[in-house]
Write a structure and sequence with these properties.
Layout lengths: L5 E6 L6 H11 L6 E6 L4 H12 L2 E8 L2 E7 L2
Parallel strand pairs: 1-2
Antiparallel strand pairs: 2-4, 3-4
Helix pairs in contact: 1-2
Length: about 80
């Protein structure tokens, strides 16, 4: 079960640049310190999500391979 400050975001099936664009838009609606758990299947998301976090000051708490793609846990700056 996710706590109130954690949101799941399923972006599986979307191709670059949509996962990073949608992640940025969702993070903009969240409070500082909240966690966004993003699931993707686009292999470029590994680079793009890390770059987004670095650019915008968010913390990439987790980046892991899953059986069908990748999972990221991002703490909103």
């Amino acid at each position: 079960m996710r706590d109130a400050l954690e949101q799941a975001y399923d972006l599986k099936g979307l191709k670059c640049p949509l996962p990073v664009l949608k992640t940025r838009k969702r993070l903009a609606t969240m409070h500082s310190g909240a966690v966004l758990v993003v699931e993707t299947t686009d292999p470029l998301a590994v680079i793009d999500i890390a770059h987004l976090c670095q650019e915008d000051g968010h913390t990439l708490r987790l980046s892991e391979k899953t059986p069908d793609g990748h999972r990221f846990e991002i703490i909103k700056a």
